[in-house]
Amino acid sequence: MASTTHVVIQANATPIYADVDPHTFLISPDAIRRRITSKTRAIITVALYGLSPDMDPIMSLARQHNLLVIEDNAECFLGRYKGRLAGTIGHAGSFSFQSSKHMTSGEGGMVITDDQELALNVRRVCSLGYRGVGAGKAKLQRTDIQDPDYARHASMGWNYRIPELCAAVALGQLENLDELVRRRTAAAELFQEAVGNCSWMTPQKIPADCTHSWWTFVAALDTNRIGWRAFRDAFAANGGDGIYAAWRINYLEPMFQERKLLGRERFISPEILESYRPGLCPVAEGLQPRLLQFKTNYWNTNEAQQQAEILAKTIRQLS
Ligand SMILES: Cc1ncc(COP(=O)(O)O)c(C=O)c1O
Prior knowledge:
The chain is α+β, with helices and mostly antiparallel strands. It has one domain: Aspartate Aminotransferase, domain 2, CATH 3.40.640.10. Helices cover 36% and strands 13% of the residues. The chain is built from 12 helices and 11 strands. The protein has a 4-stranded mixed sheet, sandwiched between helices. Strands 7-9-11-10 form a 4-stranded antiparallel sheet, with helices on one face. The longest helix is centred in the middle third of the chain and has 19 residues, at 177-195. Pyridoxal-5'-phosphate binds next to α1.
């Protein structure tokens, strides 16, 4: 999902892509190891579709090379990795409250960290570099703003603050988060059952020590057996509902191929710009056109049950 790339480019840094594991569809620690150089500063892991990547070897690589780890948990609320909550393992974790996510405030999100200095820097970057931002009571006094010499801006920053109205909605959603995740999990379990032992559709593999949070239920299609669009059409003809393709591979998008990086392409070396082409991450490139994403946000379990039955029927028809 391209936001993880955008944020690197917005920081005037260079995105380096590491390939994924063919079974979990998630970033592979071995692939990361092969891409680390003396210029590497941070690793962003993505809990894609709601499942945490294999964090232990990634954290150990980070310690070895003195790198920061940021967990992109936009799609993973209450997911677990070896008993730990996904998003609490790296130095910071980010969550999205955009409208398709487990909990939403329309737009917005949050960053979590247990590093005070990092927290302050994140707040400042999100808030025009204000010196007075903080988690506790505002540090700004009336006398400060009545002082013409008051120096507000400790650093440069953007206005990425979540609006207070959205934050209020997010707090309400947070109270229901267990239930919101439970409903998605129930839908995903029904889909999983519907796929059963189908030889030409393979769901995302969930390692035994992980808990999936099921933003979507994803399976790889054997497209030698049946084409993506042919499957979609058969599913839809039976009354199937939300089904999405996986995002195209970021570096193959026109933004890279046509160098449309809003001037920031000058921060990326010509050799790396040149490397953004087919073959860079062969496993991800092979998987992406085969992935089916089924939505899991059915408020009504009967509706999810009906969709799972339609999936099972479609598989039977095409087998
Ligand atoms: C994996 C991933 N990262 C980042 C984002 C961006 O989150 P937001 O839309 O809140 O900026 C999203 C979805 O929107 C996402 O799915």
